C-alpha cells in the first residue's frame, strides 16, 4: 500500500458515506501524505525565503535563518495539512486521527484479529490459494453488527479505561509536582526562608524576655 493507492481508494469511498461522517484513521504513512511540503530546519535559507514569498509573507532580507524559521512556525498550521483530510472536507466529511502508538483505540484491530484467528484455525493445507479462500470467507463474516460491536467495545471499555488511568495519574502525580515545585521555590529563596525561620523561632523568646 502507498499513499497514492490509498487516496484513490478513499476517493471512491467518500461518496458512499453520509454527510458529516467521521472517518477514523491511524497515522500510517500512506494515510499521512501532506498537501505540500512545509519549510523546516532542513531547508536552506534561500528555500525558506522562497516558501515565504510564495505565501506572500513579508520578511526582511537581512533576517537570520532562525528568524525565518520562527516566522514559518507562526503560519505553519494554516498550510500543514493532510491530503486525505482535505479530500474528506471537500465531501463534507471529517477525518479524526488516532494518537500515535494507540492502536487499541482502532476497532479494526479487533476485526483483523478475528480474521487472522479464523484463518489460523481453519488453515490445514498451508497452501497460499487455500489461505486466500479462507481470508475471503473470514471477510464475509465481518458484518455491520460485528463492526458496531467492536466500535462499542472501544468506546465503552478501552476509552473509559484510558480516562480512568488519566485520572489516576493526575491524582498521584499532581501532588508530586506540587511538592517538587515547592521544594524548588524554597531552595531558590533559601535566604528568605532562613530569615522567616529565625523570626518564627526567636520571636516567642524575645516576647517572653520582654514580658
From TrEMBL:
Its Gene Ontology molecular function terms?
A: nucleic acid binding
Q: Where is the Tc1-like transposase DDE domain?
A: 2-123
UniProt-listed Pfam families: DDE_3 (PF13358)
Q: What is this protein called?
A: Tc1-like transposase DDE domain-containing protein
Say which species the protein is native to.
Acanthoscelides obtectus (Bean weevil)
Amino acid at each position: 500500500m502507498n499513499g497514492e493507492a490509498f487516496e484513490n481508494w478513499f476517493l471512491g469511498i467518500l461518496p458512499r458515506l453520509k454527510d458529516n461522517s467521521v472517518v477514523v484513521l491511524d497515522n500510517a504513512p500512506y494515510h499521512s501524505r501532506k498537501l505540500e511540503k512545509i519549510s523546516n530546519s532542513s531547508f536552506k535559507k534561500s528555500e525558506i525565503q522562497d516558501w515565504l514569498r510564495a505565501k506572500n509573507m513579508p520578511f526582511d532580507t537581512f533576517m537570520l535563518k532562525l528568524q525565518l524559521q520562527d516566522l514559518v512556525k507562526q503560519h505553519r498550521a494554516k498550510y500543514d495539512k493532510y491530503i486525505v483530510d482535505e479530500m474528506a472536507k471537500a465531501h463534507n466529511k471529517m477525518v479524526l486521527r488516532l494518537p500515535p502508538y494507540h492502536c487499541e483505540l482502532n476497532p479494526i484491530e479487533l476485526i483483523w484479529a478475528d480474521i487472522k484467528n479464523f484463518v489460523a484455525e481453519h488453515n490445514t493445507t498451508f497452501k497460499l490459494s487455500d489461505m486466500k479462500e479462507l481470508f475471503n470467507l473470514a471477510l464475509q463474516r465481518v458484518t455491520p453488527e460485528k463492526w458496531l460491536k467492536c466500535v462499542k467495545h472501544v468506546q465503552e471499555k478501552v476509552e473509559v479505561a484510558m480516562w480512568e488511568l488519566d485520572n489516576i495519574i493526575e491524582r498521584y502525580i499532581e501532588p508530586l509536582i506540587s511538592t517538587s515545585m515547592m521544594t524548588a521555590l524554597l531552595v531558590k529563596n533559601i535566604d528568605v526562608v532562613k530569615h522567616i525561620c529565625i523570626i518564627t523561632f526567636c520571636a516567642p523568646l524575645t516576647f517572653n524576655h520582654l514580658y
